[in-house]
Design brief:
Length: about 120
Amino acid sequence: MEVTTQYGPGFIVTDLTGRFDAHTVGRYLTDVAEKVDGSHATVVVDLSGVEFMDSSALAALITTLKRAMEHGGDVILAGVSDAARIILELTRLDEVFTRAESREAALAQLKGATV
Protein backbone atom coordinates (compact mmCIF):
# COMPACT_ATOMS: atom_id res chain seq x y z
CA MET A 1 0.00 0.00 0.00
CA GLU A 2 1.14 3.51 -0.73
CA VAL A 3 0.49 6.15 1.94
CA THR A 4 0.83 9.84 1.10
CA THR A 5 0.32 12.26 3.96
CA GLN A 6 0.04 16.04 4.03
CA TYR A 7 -0.51 18.37 6.96
CA GLY A 8 -2.76 21.42 7.02
CA PRO A 9 -3.83 23.82 9.75
CA GLY A 10 -5.59 21.53 12.21
CA PHE A 11 -5.83 18.51 9.95
CA ILE A 12 -4.04 15.66 8.22
CA VAL A 13 -4.88 14.46 4.70
CA THR A 14 -3.79 10.99 3.72
CA ASP A 15 -4.21 9.16 0.42
CA LEU A 16 -4.18 5.37 0.51
CA THR A 17 -3.57 3.31 -2.61
CA GLY A 18 -3.59 -0.48 -2.94
CA ARG A 19 -4.36 -3.08 -0.28
CA PHE A 20 -5.22 -1.76 3.18
CA ASP A 21 -4.85 -4.90 5.26
CA ALA A 22 -2.95 -6.63 8.05
CA HIS A 23 0.27 -6.54 6.05
CA THR A 24 0.14 -2.78 5.42
CA VAL A 25 -1.80 -1.32 8.33
CA GLY A 26 1.36 -0.73 10.40
CA ARG A 27 2.56 1.90 7.97
CA TYR A 28 -0.78 3.72 8.15
CA LEU A 29 -0.71 3.68 11.96
CA THR A 30 2.84 5.07 12.02
CA ASP A 31 2.31 7.66 9.28
CA VAL A 32 -1.18 8.82 10.25
CA ALA A 33 -2.91 7.57 13.41
CA GLU A 34 0.05 8.21 15.70
CA LYS A 35 0.37 11.78 14.37
CA VAL A 36 -3.14 12.85 15.47
CA ASP A 37 -2.85 15.45 18.23
CA GLY A 38 -4.21 18.80 19.34
CA SER A 39 -2.69 20.62 16.37
CA HIS A 40 -3.81 17.97 13.84
CA ALA A 41 -7.07 16.64 15.27
CA THR A 42 -9.03 15.94 12.08
CA VAL A 43 -7.99 13.38 9.50
CA VAL A 44 -9.20 13.12 5.92
CA VAL A 45 -8.59 9.59 4.64
CA ASP A 46 -8.89 9.33 0.86
CA LEU A 47 -9.94 5.75 0.16
CA SER A 48 -10.53 6.19 -3.58
CA GLY A 49 -7.42 4.15 -4.42
CA VAL A 50 -8.04 1.29 -1.98
CA GLU A 51 -8.42 -2.03 -3.80
CA PHE A 52 -8.97 -4.23 -0.73
CA MET A 53 -9.65 -3.59 2.95
CA ASP A 54 -9.84 -6.06 5.84
CA SER A 55 -10.77 -5.96 9.53
CA SER A 56 -7.32 -4.76 10.61
CA ALA A 57 -7.78 -1.71 8.36
CA LEU A 58 -11.15 -1.07 10.00
CA ALA A 59 -9.51 -1.31 13.42
CA ALA A 60 -6.87 1.21 12.32
CA LEU A 61 -9.56 3.64 11.14
CA ILE A 62 -11.39 3.25 14.46
CA THR A 63 -8.13 3.88 16.34
CA THR A 64 -7.68 7.04 14.29
CA LEU A 65 -11.26 8.13 15.03
CA LYS A 66 -10.79 7.59 18.78
CA ARG A 67 -7.58 9.63 18.80
CA ALA A 68 -9.20 12.38 16.73
CA MET A 69 -12.21 12.56 19.04
CA GLU A 70 -9.92 12.78 22.09
CA HIS A 71 -8.55 15.98 20.56
CA GLY A 72 -11.89 17.37 19.42
CA GLY A 73 -11.49 16.25 15.82
CA ASP A 74 -13.02 13.78 13.41
CA VAL A 75 -12.16 11.36 10.62
CA ILE A 76 -13.62 12.04 7.20
CA LEU A 77 -13.54 9.17 4.71
CA ALA A 78 -13.28 10.64 1.23
CA GLY A 79 -13.89 9.09 -2.18
CA VAL A 80 -14.61 5.67 -0.72
CA SER A 81 -13.84 2.97 -3.32
CA ASP A 82 -16.29 0.13 -3.91
CA ALA A 83 -13.98 -2.30 -2.09
CA ALA A 84 -13.86 -0.08 0.98
CA ARG A 85 -17.56 0.82 0.79
CA ILE A 86 -18.61 -2.83 0.87
CA ILE A 87 -16.73 -3.67 4.08
CA LEU A 88 -17.82 -0.41 5.71
CA GLU A 89 -21.47 -1.16 4.90
CA LEU A 90 -21.27 -4.82 5.96
CA THR A 91 -19.89 -3.81 9.34
CA ARG A 92 -22.21 -0.77 9.53
CA LEU A 93 -19.19 1.43 10.15
CA ASP A 94 -20.37 3.59 7.26
CA GLU A 95 -22.80 5.01 9.85
CA VAL A 96 -19.98 5.86 12.27
CA PHE A 97 -17.63 7.79 10.00
CA THR A 98 -18.20 11.15 8.37
CA ARG A 99 -18.05 10.70 4.59
CA ALA A 100 -17.36 12.93 1.62
CA GLU A 101 -17.68 12.21 -2.08
CA SER A 102 -14.09 13.26 -2.75
CA ARG A 103 -10.96 14.64 -1.15
CA GLU A 104 -11.91 18.10 -2.39
CA ALA A 105 -15.40 17.81 -0.84
CA ALA A 106 -13.84 16.74 2.47
CA LEU A 107 -11.52 19.74 2.45
CA ALA A 108 -14.49 21.97 1.68
CA GLN A 109 -16.28 20.49 4.71
CA LEU A 110 -13.27 21.39 6.84
CA LYS A 111 -13.19 24.95 5.56
CA GLY A 112 -16.92 25.28 6.18
CA ALA A 113 -16.50 24.03 9.75
CA THR A 114 -13.75 26.50 10.55
CA VAL A 115 -15.57 29.59 9.22
